[in-house]
Amino acid sequence: MRSRWRSTLVIALFAFLGACWAALAQTNATVADRVYSEAQAARGQAIYQAQCRACHGAALEGGLAPPLSGADFLRGWNGRALAQLADKIERTMPASNPGTLSRAQATELVASLLKASAFPAGTAELTGDTLGRITLVGPAGGRPPGNMAQVMRGILFPSSNLIFNVQNVDPGEQKVGWQPGGPTAFSWVDWGAGIYSGWELVDYAAVALAESAPLLLTPGRRCENGRPAPVERADWVKFTAELAGAGRAAYAASQSRNRDAVIETTNQIAEACLNCHEVYRDKPGGTTTDPSNKAARCY
Ligand code: HEC
Ligand code: HEC
Question: What is the pLDDT of residues 146-157, one digit of tens each?
């Protein structure tokens, strides 16, 4: 009886160890393990030169868009599966024409990016199957999820627009339960638009502006062109303080539920945006491929 128990235990132990080993073998590969071939990287490089270099630079060094090689690029992808990088490329790039690359092309582009960051080539090619099991390695530390332009577009743009709209629309007229365009309306504000009253929306937009100042100071945040945002420069810090001040003023005005008072703070908000944009965003000397001169931003 005892020995039967023991052998069952031994068998179970071996099965368990075997499963662990299989799991390790599946997840242990990294980009250092010769996971792509030279030929595959060359095919990716040809696509890169035709469709990516205008924004990311001839040598992947960045330009209008961030670099796709080197320490800063790898820091953002450290510890993530190559499949995520392929997804990013296949579904969102080229940013001017997303959704036009096949999975095979995205995989070839991944191979060319690995080569550009000096990971060694081998004889096997990357495939849809292996992408998910190979991990990228780079410097630790990571990056905040958004670049500066994304934070601006996601938080500051909608919030300040909502407050600017008080010039045209009386927030007191929008009650809880209001349904813009009916139940099928789809925009980034329509869903849930009836949950808070108009005045509450102004409150929250003002709070978003006031609270966003520290987000503009997050260390490691980059601008869209890959340049580190100048978060430690004295004038940048001053501009973010002006933004926080404008947000506080708008919140105080909104709390008074006085439309004219809010309208007055819109000047202060617009100025807070403008003062920083004049120095760090709106650079003269745009070209036909880069009319707003994104490559020169954040200097
Ligand atoms: C019109 C300009 C433009 C073109 C063309 C373009 N990109 Fe991008 N790309 C961007 C911008 C802007 C970002 C930063 C915002 C983002 O991550 O989506 C970016 C980000 C990326 C990232 C993420 C970088 C990181 O550090 O996280 C990858 C990878 C990438 N692009 C690959 C490509 C590839 C491959 C091509 C060609 C098939 C391409 N891009 C073409 C503008 C462009
Ligand atoms: C402390 C400086 C600073 C302040 C304050 C600031 N911005 Fe920006 N903004 C920038 C920079 C720099 C960029 C370019 C970022 C990039 O390229 O990644 C930018 C870009 C933008 C963009 C994207 C434009 C484009 O070309 O895609 C929008 C929208 C924007 N800002 C809105 C606002 C609004 C609205 C405010 C005020 C409520 C504001 N910003 C306040 C520095 C600032």
Answer: 999 999 999 999
Assigned CATH topology for domain 38-131? Cytochrome Bc1 Complex; Chain D, domain 2 (1.10.760)
pLDDT tens figures, 117-139: 999 999 999 999 999 999 999 99
Taking CA atoms, 22 is separated from 26, 28, 31, 185, in Å, by 6, 10, 19, 49
CB 221 within 8 A of CB 229: yes
**Could you tell me which of 22, 139, 122 has the C-alpha nearest to residue 71?**
139
**Cα 271 from Cα 275, distance rounded (Å):** 6
CATH architecture of 148-296: Up-down Bundle (1.20)
Parse the chain into domains and list their residue ranges.
38-131, 148-296
136: closest CA among 222, 90, 69?
69
Does residue 166's CB lie within 6 angstroms of at least one atom of ligand 1? no
Residue 82's nearest CA partner among 116, 139, 36 is 36
Kindly tell me if the per-residue pLDDT of 21 is higher than 50.
no
What's this model's pTM, rounded to 2 decimal places? Answer: 0.89
- Tell me how far apart the alpha carbons of residues 27 and 127 are, in angstroms, rounded to a whole number: 15
CA distances from 87 to 146, 226, 262 (A): 17, 20, 44
Q: What is the DSSP letter of 62?
A: -
What tokens appear for 71 in the block?
Answer: 């320490």
Is residue 94 within 6 Å of ligand 1 at its C-beta? yes
Q: What pLDDT score was predicted for residue 186?
A: 65
**Displacement of CA 221 from its chain's centroid (Å):** 10
- Take atom 15 of ligand 1 and give the residue whose Cα is closest: 224
Testing ligand 2's pocket by substitution, the residue of 152, 212, 216, 278 carrying the most ligand atoms inside 8 A of its CB is 152
Residues in the chain: 299
Q: What is the DSSP letter of 119?
A: P
Find the radius of gyration of the CA atoms of the chain.
26
